[in-house]
Amino acid sequence: MFDDFFLISFVPILTGLFSALSCTLVGNILVLRKQAMLSDTISHVVLPGIVISFLIFGNLGSHFMLVGAAIAGLTAVGTIAVLRTYTSMDNSAAMATTLSVFFAAGVLMIELTAGGNVHLDVEHALYGNLESLIWIDGESLMSVFDSVSRQTIPVELTRAIIGFVLIASVMFVYWRFLIVSTFDHTFAEISGVPVGVVSAGVALAATNAAVISFDAVGSIIVIAMFVCPPAAARVLTHSLRDQVWLSLLFSSLSAVLGYAVAGYVPILLGFETSISAAGTIATLSGVILAGAIFYGKRQRSYDFLDGHQT
Amino acid sequence: MTELIGYNTALALVGALLFGFSSGHVGAFVYLRKASLLSDSLAHATLPGLVIGFLVSTFLGMEEKNSLVLLLGAGVSALFGVVVIQWITARTKLGFDTAIAAVLSVFFGFGIVLLTGVQSVSVGQQAGLEDYILGSVSGMLLQDVVVIGLVSIMCSAAVVVYRRLLTAFIFDPVLSEMAGYAQHRMSFLLSLLTLVITIIGLKIVGLILVVAMLTIPAATARLWTTGVWSMSLLSALFGSVAAGIGVIISALLPSLPSGAVIVVLMFIALGLSIVVTHLRGSNV
Amino acid sequence: MSADAISATELSVDYDGVTAIQDVDFTVRAEKLTAIVGPNGAGKSTLIKALLGLIPNRNGTISCFGTSPKQYRKNISYVPQRAQIDWEFPANVFDVVAMGLYGELGLLRRFSSAHKDRVQSALTDVDMADFAARQISQLSGGQQQRVFLARSIVQDAELILLDEPFGGIDSKSEAVIVDILRRQKQHGKSIVAVHHDLSTVKDYFDDVILLNKTVTAFGPINDVFTKSNIEKTYGVSNLDFLTGRS
Predict the structure, then answer these.
(1) A93 touching B (Cβ < 8 Å)
(2) What CATH architecture is C4-236?
(3) Which residue in A135, B143, B178, C221 is a FRET match for B44, CA 20 to 30 A apart?
């Protein structure tokens, strides 16, 4: 059963892992800024951008997909602004309108051009396509070090790794600005932090994470990767540093275990096919969040007692 | 054969007109209460219940498309989602936004696990279940339309009866409480209406896009009028017309999911309304 | 004799499309404790935002020690209302005070042990050194306010602006905070605070600005904080119980 690990499972596991880590990094900031639903909006609105890039370049491997999705993201931000200016909508109604119309447009584009596309369908948009990332030349660990074999590694993995490194390094460099503008917006502005640039950067990072995760988990389950691991970590600790590390741990656990459970458990139970890896990853992240809330509640009451003693 | 398609389309049209009306009607109040994204979360949380409802009805030997059982499952699932959202916000320092995002994505993810599980053990035909995600009216039966129609009429009737209390509650919750209508009861009523509309809308617009039915017609109506009651009626009219036209287009071009067509139509109406009311210099 | 810390001439400020402050003139003396006092909706917080250069003035000018608020920002520190802060934010007392140095540190400069010492000494100034590792939600209201005062001390700004520093705080903590502010004044800082408790204005502050969309009066407490001026600001009479104390 594990013979073809490098052929079948190696690339999906790493793609899922790096997608999840990217989303979770940005998610830590979104949860603290009380903008968790921004991940909902962004993951839906990138769909038409991805579809248009796909229609132009013919495959999902193109790096122009990022450009297409970024343009769709910016158009959506513009749409939200227009709706808030010219109608009585509040932010949540404008987000709900924008995400549903962009997603609907993306679905219609897929269906209207469905004829020749076997690689992009509505199911793909809904729950990803992790299982399809097969590495033809992946025979053993040695293949990773073989430059010829490496060429057939699906571009989705390369993109996920590049995306993760990009998000992680930008966040590392801008960490102080991110934190101070999230904690105390006015103070940040006076201290010379470019708060507008920081907000736009957060949205752009979320778009980037949503796009590289599209192949892995689709546009809805990705929200779980943004929100659940940071939320679980936030319940368990008061320290921001611990929160980020814990969330990355939870995120890795969900991604790797989720793929393993989805791929192997049904087979072990004697069923022929497997269940959705993306769905299992999201479910696992939800289980971890629920566990954290149960455990975190107890811990909180100890803190309370501690506070009284001093 | 053409007669049969005509019959199905006519059935779907009746269902869509009634559902569009009541979703616009209720949506006006949801919109004023600024609860759009909560309804989005509830809609996604119906998926596990839909699949479990499907399994239950299959194992009980009913027809696999017994929509009542499916919708009941969807309702229980979404109610559980509400409970979880309340549990998270009450017991932790996590915000409302985080709670609804977590419930939306985890419930949907678990629903997808169940859905793919059903596909792999292939009990009966799962065909039809995916229609609830993006909406499809191709296989609508008389019993579906009867359920959707009756429940829609009940929701609109509830709005008619409670319109003043709902208005007072949304505008000034404290005042409405002083007048003897407990906030939690009015809040519960509005959540219940949202939940019911979401569930009966699954077939026609699908769970991903049902939030648009509760938001876009209301926002469009608000551009044309200032009164709550006139706004809710206009919103109902917009919802009804968009759902009707959308269903006809989707029946003519069966590959297009009806939900996506309806949402795009409603958005076009919103865009036109913005332009027209703006040119007119409307002071609304 | 020291110069004016702030002077505003013919200042008008809009907030959310509504005129919040209309055509006001006033000055704030340097190295004094000044209160901005007025009824709800008088534009106190708007005035603070304008002094911080966060919202543009529709009309008139503000100057801080001779330059515009935006240019002077590096020398201003700001203490927000406690209600504006998410106290569950994952940060401890040390982290919050350290944020006061972020403007100076920028993005890449290392947080050295010298910076650490500055944070510690600011915490000592407000008598919170023992709480450095405490999560901010586990502090009393007065302690939370002292943490923010430490943050403004570490910034070493010339001008300190506070929005309702005594909101929701018991009177013992108030006294501690007033003490800290007075010490800062002795170190040459100029301090302006939005204040809503008329009964303590005379005890805590040197100067006052009476504001209700327009400035009714400004200057030293003893000259300005009179019954008639307060009545003019609040638009009511019978305020004897407030001014009769001194």
Answers:
(1) yes
(2) 3-Layer(aba) Sandwich (3.40)
(3) B143
Please answer yes or no on whether B212 and A114 come within 8 Å at the CB atom: no
3-class DSSP state of A58 = coil
Neighbours of B, requiring at least 3 CB pairs below 8 Å, are A
Element holding A55 (H helix, E strand): helix A36-57
Q: Give, for C27, the enclosing helix (H) or strand (E).
A: strand C18-29
Q: Which of A177, A191, A239 sits opposite C90 (nearest CB)?
A: A239
Q: What is the dihedral of CA A275, A278, A284, A290, to 10 degrees?
A: -120
What domains can be seen in chain B, in order of their start residue?
2-274 (1.10.3470.10)
Q: Which domains does chain A have, with CATH numbers?
A: 5-132+152-309 (1.10.3470.10)
Whether residues B110 and A282 touch (CB distance < 8 A) is answered with yes
Q: What is the pLDDT of residues B230-274, one digit of tens each?
A: 999 999 999 999 999 999 998 888 788 889 999 999 999 999 999
Range scoring the smallest mean pLDDT among A161-175, B81-95, B167-181: B167-181
Contact B204, B23 (CB under 8 A): no
B37 to chain A: which residues are within 8 Å by CB? 37, 40, 92, 95-96
Tokens standing for A271?
A: 């069923």
Interior angle at CA B89, CA A37 and CA B108, nearest 5: 50
- What whole-number distance in Å separates Cα of residue B241 and Cα of residue B270? 13
Q: Which two tokens stand for residue A120?
A: 């992009």
Cα A28 to Cα A263, A279, B265: the distances in Å are: 29, 21, 37
Task: Check CB contact under 8 Å for A36 and B113.
Answer: no
Residue-range domain boundaries for chain C: 4-236
Instruction: Let me know the angle formed at the C-alpha of A140 by A136 and A146, rounded to the nearest 5 degrees.
Output: 75
In angstroms, how far apart are the furthest CA atoms of chain C?
A: 58
B88 touches chain A (CB under 8 A): yes
pLDDT bin (cut points 50, 70, 90) of residue B120 is low
Structure tokens at B112: 């997808």
Across the interface, of C74, C84, C135, the residue whose CB is closest to A238 is C135
Facing residues of C159 across strands?
C76, C190
What is the tens place of the pLDDT at every residue in C129-178? 999 999 998 899 999 999 999 999 998 889 999 999 998 888 888 999 99
Strand pairing report for C4-15 and C18-29:
antiparallel
> B184 near B53, Cβ under 8 Å?
no
For B61, the token pair is: 């030997």
User: What proportion of chain A, given as a percentage, has pLDDT over 90?
Assistant: 42
3-class SS letters over chain B = CHHHHHHHHHHHHHHHHHHHHHHHHHHHHHHHCCCHHHHHHHHHCCHHHHHHHHHHHHHCCCCCCCHHHHHHHHHHHHHHHHHHHHHHHHHCCCCHHHHHHHHHHHHHHHHHHHHHHHHHHCCCCCCCCCHHHHCCCCCCCHHHHHHHHHHHHHHHHHHHHHHHHHHHHHHCHHHHHHCCCCHHHHHHHHHHHHHHHHHHHCCCCCCCCHHHHHHHHHHHHHHHCCCHHHHHHHHHHHHHHHHHHHHHHHHHCCCCCHHHHHHHHHHHHHHHHHHHHHHHCCCC
B:90-149 residues touching chain A, CB 8 A cutoff: 91-95, 97-98, 100-102, 104-113, 115-117, 119-121, 130, 133-134
First to last CA, chain C: 27
Task: For residues C111 and A229, give the distance between their C-alpha atoms in angstroms, rounded to a whole number.
Answer: 29
Contact at CB, B120 and A293, closer than 8 angstroms: no
CA distance C130 to chain A (A): 11
B52-105: per-residue pLDDT in tens? 988 888 777 766 457 788 889 999 999 999 999 989 988 888 989 999 999 999
- Six token digits for residue C237: 């009479």
Is B33 an interface residue toward A (CB < 8 Å)?
no
